[in-house]
Specification:
The chain is mostly helical. The protein folds into two domains: 154 residues; 50 residues, no CATH class. The chain is flat and about 60 Å long. It is a multi-pass membrane protein. Keywords: Ion channel, Ion transport, Membrane, Receptor, Transmembrane, Transmembrane helix, Transport. GO terms for molecular function: inositol 1,4,5 trisphosphate binding; store-operated calcium channel activity. One of its GO terms (cellular component) is plasma membrane.
Protein backbone atom coordinates (compact mmCIF):
# COMPACT_ATOMS: atom_id res chain seq x y z
CA UNK A 1 0.00 0.00 0.00
CA UNK A 2 2.33 2.71 -1.23
CA UNK A 3 -0.32 4.89 -2.87
CA UNK A 4 -1.59 7.53 -0.39
CA UNK A 5 -5.22 7.25 -1.49
CA UNK A 6 -5.28 3.46 -1.13
CA UNK A 7 -3.59 3.71 2.26
CA UNK A 8 -6.12 6.32 3.41
CA UNK A 9 -9.07 4.18 2.32
CA UNK A 10 -7.70 1.09 4.09
CA UNK A 11 -6.91 2.96 7.29
CA UNK A 12 -10.28 4.72 7.31
CA UNK A 13 -12.15 1.45 6.73
CA UNK A 14 -10.24 -0.28 9.52
CA UNK A 15 -10.89 2.63 11.88
CA UNK A 16 -14.61 2.61 11.06
CA UNK A 17 -14.66 -1.11 11.89
CA UNK A 18 -12.93 -0.29 15.18
CA UNK A 19 -15.65 2.26 15.95
CA UNK A 20 -18.25 -0.39 15.13
CA UNK A 21 -16.62 -2.67 17.70
CA UNK A 22 -16.81 0.14 20.27
CA UNK A 23 -20.53 0.53 19.58
CA UNK A 24 -21.03 -3.22 19.90
CA UNK A 25 -19.14 -3.27 23.21
CA UNK A 26 -21.11 -0.33 24.64
CA UNK A 27 -24.44 -1.90 23.62
CA UNK A 28 -23.50 -5.36 25.00
CA UNK A 29 -24.17 -6.96 21.61
CA UNK A 30 -22.87 -10.36 22.72
CA UNK A 31 -25.44 -10.53 25.53
CA UNK A 32 -28.24 -9.25 23.30
CA UNK A 33 -27.37 -11.84 20.65
CA UNK A 34 -27.44 -14.68 23.18
CA UNK A 35 -30.80 -13.43 24.48
CA UNK A 36 -32.14 -13.30 20.93
CA UNK A 37 -31.05 -16.89 20.21
CA UNK A 38 -32.57 -17.89 23.53
CA UNK A 39 -31.30 -21.45 24.03
CA UNK A 40 -31.13 -22.82 27.56
CA UNK A 41 -27.34 -23.01 27.44
CA UNK A 42 -26.96 -19.37 26.36
CA UNK A 43 -29.51 -18.12 28.90
CA UNK A 44 -27.65 -19.99 31.62
CA UNK A 45 -24.39 -18.44 30.42
CA UNK A 46 -25.95 -14.96 30.61
CA UNK A 47 -27.06 -15.62 34.18
CA UNK A 48 -23.62 -16.94 35.10
CA UNK A 49 -21.85 -13.95 33.54
CA UNK A 50 -24.12 -11.48 35.34
CA UNK A 51 -23.34 -13.15 38.67
CA UNK A 52 -19.59 -13.26 37.93
CA UNK A 53 -19.24 -9.88 36.26
CA UNK A 54 -16.58 -8.51 38.58
CA UNK A 55 -13.13 -9.22 37.19
CA UNK A 56 -14.38 -11.33 34.29
CA UNK A 57 -12.07 -11.83 31.27
CA UNK A 58 -12.79 -9.83 28.11
CA UNK A 59 -15.28 -11.20 25.61
CA UNK A 60 -14.87 -11.59 21.86
CA UNK A 61 -15.65 -7.96 21.03
CA UNK A 62 -13.44 -6.62 23.82
CA UNK A 63 -10.61 -8.91 22.72
CA UNK A 64 -10.88 -7.58 19.17
CA UNK A 65 -10.74 -4.03 20.55
CA UNK A 66 -7.59 -4.93 22.47
CA UNK A 67 -5.92 -6.16 19.26
CA UNK A 68 -6.82 -2.89 17.54
CA UNK A 69 -5.40 -0.89 20.46
CA UNK A 70 -2.13 -2.82 20.28
CA UNK A 71 -1.96 -2.03 16.56
CA UNK A 72 -2.68 1.66 17.18
CA UNK A 73 0.04 1.84 19.83
CA UNK A 74 2.55 0.20 17.49
CA UNK A 75 1.61 2.62 14.69
CA UNK A 76 2.09 5.63 16.99
CA UNK A 77 5.47 4.34 18.18
CA UNK A 78 6.58 3.81 14.58
CA UNK A 79 5.39 7.29 13.58
CA UNK A 80 7.18 8.84 16.55
CA UNK A 81 10.38 7.02 15.61
CA UNK A 82 10.19 8.05 11.95
CA UNK A 83 9.19 11.71 12.42
CA UNK A 84 10.92 12.61 15.67
CA UNK A 85 9.41 14.08 18.81
CA UNK A 86 9.09 17.70 17.64
CA UNK A 87 7.40 16.87 14.35
CA UNK A 88 5.17 14.36 16.12
CA UNK A 89 3.98 16.90 18.69
CA UNK A 90 3.47 19.57 16.03
CA UNK A 91 0.27 17.82 14.91
CA UNK A 92 -2.28 18.01 17.73
CA UNK A 93 -4.11 14.95 16.43
CA UNK A 94 -1.01 12.91 17.30
CA UNK A 95 -1.31 14.16 20.87
CA UNK A 96 -4.99 13.17 20.90
CA UNK A 97 -4.10 9.72 19.57
CA UNK A 98 -1.39 9.30 22.19
CA UNK A 99 -3.76 10.31 25.00
CA UNK A 100 -6.48 8.00 23.68
CA UNK A 101 -4.11 5.05 23.48
CA UNK A 102 -2.96 5.72 27.04
CA UNK A 103 -6.58 5.62 28.19
CA UNK A 104 -7.13 2.27 26.49
CA UNK A 105 -3.92 0.82 27.93
CA UNK A 106 -4.92 2.05 31.38
CA UNK A 107 -8.31 0.40 30.93
CA UNK A 108 -6.68 -2.89 29.97
CA UNK A 109 -4.36 -2.70 32.97
CA UNK A 110 -7.27 -2.04 35.33
CA UNK A 111 -9.24 -4.95 33.90
CA UNK A 112 -6.27 -7.24 34.52
CA UNK A 113 -5.94 -5.78 38.02
CA UNK A 114 -9.63 -6.48 38.72
CA UNK A 115 -9.21 -10.08 37.55
CA UNK A 116 -6.13 -10.51 39.74
CA UNK A 117 -7.93 -9.09 42.81
CA UNK A 118 -10.88 -11.43 42.30
CA UNK A 119 -8.59 -14.46 41.96
CA UNK A 120 -6.72 -13.45 45.11
CA UNK A 121 -9.96 -13.07 47.06
CA UNK A 122 -11.18 -16.46 45.86
CA UNK A 123 -7.89 -18.06 46.91
CA UNK A 124 -8.31 -16.49 50.36
CA UNK A 125 -11.82 -17.92 50.73
CA UNK A 126 -13.57 -14.55 50.44
CA UNK A 127 -16.76 -13.78 48.55
CA UNK A 128 -15.46 -12.04 45.43
CA UNK A 129 -18.50 -12.11 43.14
CA UNK A 130 -20.74 -9.48 44.69
CA UNK A 131 -23.67 -7.65 43.08
CA UNK A 132 -22.60 -4.50 41.25
CA UNK A 133 -24.30 -2.21 43.77
CA UNK A 134 -22.12 -3.70 46.53
CA UNK A 135 -18.80 -3.15 44.76
CA UNK A 136 -16.27 -0.76 46.20
CA UNK A 137 -16.66 2.72 44.62
CA UNK A 138 -13.00 2.55 43.56
CA UNK A 139 -13.11 -1.00 42.26
CA UNK A 140 -10.73 -1.32 39.27
CA UNK A 141 -13.58 -2.74 37.18
CA UNK A 142 -15.70 0.40 37.69
CA UNK A 143 -12.77 2.72 37.05
CA UNK A 144 -11.87 0.85 33.87
CA UNK A 145 -15.44 1.23 32.59
CA UNK A 146 -15.29 4.98 33.17
CA UNK A 147 -11.93 5.29 31.43
CA UNK A 148 -13.18 3.14 28.56
CA UNK A 149 -16.12 5.51 28.10
CA UNK A 150 -13.79 8.52 28.03
CA UNK A 151 -11.55 6.80 25.50
CA UNK A 152 -14.58 6.08 23.32
CA UNK A 153 -15.35 9.80 23.18
CA UNK A 154 -11.86 10.63 21.90
CA UNK A 155 -12.01 7.75 19.43
CA UNK A 156 -15.20 9.04 17.84
CA UNK A 157 -13.83 12.59 17.79
CA UNK A 158 -11.08 11.27 15.51
CA UNK A 159 -13.74 11.12 12.79
CA UNK A 160 -13.52 14.92 12.65
CA UNK A 161 -9.95 14.54 11.41
CA UNK A 162 -10.96 11.91 8.85
CA UNK A 163 -13.79 14.06 7.52
CA UNK A 164 -11.35 16.88 6.80
CA UNK A 165 -10.93 15.42 3.29
CA UNK A 166 -14.60 16.07 2.59
CA UNK A 167 -15.08 19.04 0.20
CA UNK A 168 -17.85 20.44 2.41
CA UNK A 169 -16.69 19.62 5.95
CA UNK A 170 -12.99 20.28 5.33
CA UNK A 171 -13.27 24.04 4.64
CA UNK A 172 -15.77 24.33 7.50
CA UNK A 173 -13.22 22.85 9.93
CA UNK A 174 -10.59 25.33 8.74
CA UNK A 175 -13.03 28.21 9.21
CA UNK A 176 -13.92 27.06 12.72
CA UNK A 177 -10.24 26.67 13.55
CA UNK A 178 -9.59 30.28 12.56
CA UNK A 179 -12.60 31.42 14.63
CA UNK A 180 -11.57 29.76 17.90
CA UNK A 181 -10.24 32.97 19.47
CA UNK A 182 -13.33 34.89 18.36
CA UNK A 183 -15.54 32.24 19.96
CA UNK A 184 -13.55 32.50 23.21
CA UNK A 185 -14.00 36.28 23.21
CA UNK A 186 -17.74 35.87 22.71
CA UNK A 187 -18.02 33.41 25.60
CA UNK A 188 -16.03 35.79 27.82
CA UNK A 189 -18.55 38.58 27.15
CA UNK A 190 -21.42 36.11 27.60
CA UNK A 191 -19.96 35.01 30.95
CA UNK A 192 -19.78 38.62 32.13
CA UNK A 193 -23.44 39.21 31.25
CA UNK A 194 -24.47 35.92 32.89
CA UNK A 195 -22.47 36.77 36.03
CA UNK A 196 -24.12 40.21 36.23
CA UNK A 197 -27.62 38.72 36.05
CA UNK A 198 -26.60 36.02 38.55
CA UNK A 199 -25.52 38.64 41.08
CA UNK A 200 -28.84 40.45 40.71
CA UNK A 201 -30.92 37.29 41.05
CA UNK A 202 -28.88 36.17 44.06
CA UNK A 203 -29.57 39.52 45.76
CA UNK A 204 -33.31 39.00 45.24
CA UNK A 205 -33.65 35.29 46.05
CA UNK A 206 -30.98 34.46 48.66
CA UNK A 207 -33.53 34.50 51.50
CA UNK A 208 -35.79 31.93 49.81
CA UNK A 209 -32.82 29.64 49.20
CA UNK A 210 -32.16 29.45 52.94
CA UNK A 211 -35.85 28.76 53.64
CA UNK A 212 -35.98 25.95 51.07
CA UNK A 213 -32.82 24.43 52.54
CA UNK A 214 -34.33 24.41 56.04
CA UNK A 215 -37.57 22.87 54.76
CA UNK A 216 -35.62 20.21 52.88
CA UNK A 217 -33.63 19.12 55.93
CA UNK A 218 -36.57 19.38 58.32
CA UNK A 219 -38.81 17.28 56.09
Amino acid sequence: MKKPFTKFICHSTAYCFFLLLLIMASQRVETLLMQWIGTDFLLEKIRYDSEHERGKPPGLVESAIMFFVVGFVWAEIKQLWDEGLLNYLYDMWNVVDFFTNMLYLTCIGLRFSAWFIVQRELASGLEAYLPREEWDPYDPMLISEGIFGAANIFSFLKMVHIFSVNPHLGPLQISLGRMVFDIIKFFFIYSLVLFAFGCGMNQLLWYYADIDKELCYSG
